[in-house]
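Chapter review. Work through the record for triacylglycerol lipase before attempting the end-of-chapter questions.
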Amino acid sequence: MALFSNVTKQKSKIFSLKCLLVATLFSFGFLNEDKVQADNSDPNIFVHGLTGFGHGELGEDLYYWGGTTQNIIGDLSDNGYQSLEAVVSPFGSNWDRSIELYYYIKGGTVDYGAAHAEEHGHARYGRTFPGIYPTWNAENKIHLIGHSQGGQTSRMLETLLREGSQEEKEYAQAHGIELPEIFSGNKEWVRSITTIATPHNGTQVASLAKDLLHEVIYGSAFIANGSLVNLSYDFKLDQWGLRQLPNESSLAYLKRVFSSSIWNANEDIVLYDLTTEGAQKLNEKTSLSDDVYYFSYSGNATYKGVLSSNYYPSLTMFPLYSISAAYIGATGGKEWRSNDGLVPVISALYPQGQAFKNADGNPTKGVWYVEPTIEGWEHMDFVGQDYVQAPLLKNKVKAFYQNIAIRNQGL
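Structure tokens for triacylglycerol lipase:
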């Protein structure tokens, strides 16, 4: 046993040194297009968070993953790391988004589940997708990389693949209908999950989120198009009957969506899933697989007050998030106050109640591998959308994702 332990430790050191060496070379630009020897060639599937969008939806020069300064996904692919962008509802619940994510990757018509649709009062079927990785299966696994809510959505999908849905199974049997494949379970199709600034345990700012969403969308419109007149934003809430109508202006569509009753007392929408209560329910529904690696990253862009236990936004924080950062910094227990502008640090580390360990150079399957909090980085710095700091952090953000891609290929 001692010999086995020594060998394991030695492998861990070699793995850590290899990642450190390659990451260093990347940071200095010595490995621009040369592939690093890989243990797997599974693609990285990027899953956006709240208010997210696909490339081209808000203009050709604006990327969710990179803002206006870079194309993170494209750069990774150009350097030999197959990386694909998934696009789901920017406001759907994690259940709905996870189902959309499955079909967006695999291909087919979205089936939210007959039992789920009946319980929550929306349409059972959604859009049809060709699939960005239709060969996805147990032999062709994927790495899920989720920013913000995208991390929760990735966790929900991975659990559904493994465990299926007992409610959907019982409903299908009782009503004599065919059970969609996603709900049957026994699918070990995911190699790793990486969550970035994800509110695993919710956020105090969820109660203010609806008002904040207006500002985020309006701000994106001005950045992408220069005005609200040219706003083109797809909420992807077709199951709720909220698709933009023919001849309906974008502004009218926006107002109709935000005046809809779906935001009120509804547990099948994003605003509930981001609360501490909603996040806790998701944590209870999800589990860890002994065959999957789990990684988490968090950021902190606040500082503790001298005369109080409150936390305040850093001077470099994007102005829009200074309000929410101050709100979180003065709300809840002291351990919940340091934050990235939208998510408390404690919430981004790991889902409470699930196994974890702090990063030690030896990632282990079935346990959250918690990376050190990145001080000075706010919520949107991780995706290059802090338009104040994006130009300054461009190379660091690029290296951040290159390091993740390197690590994933070595798993």
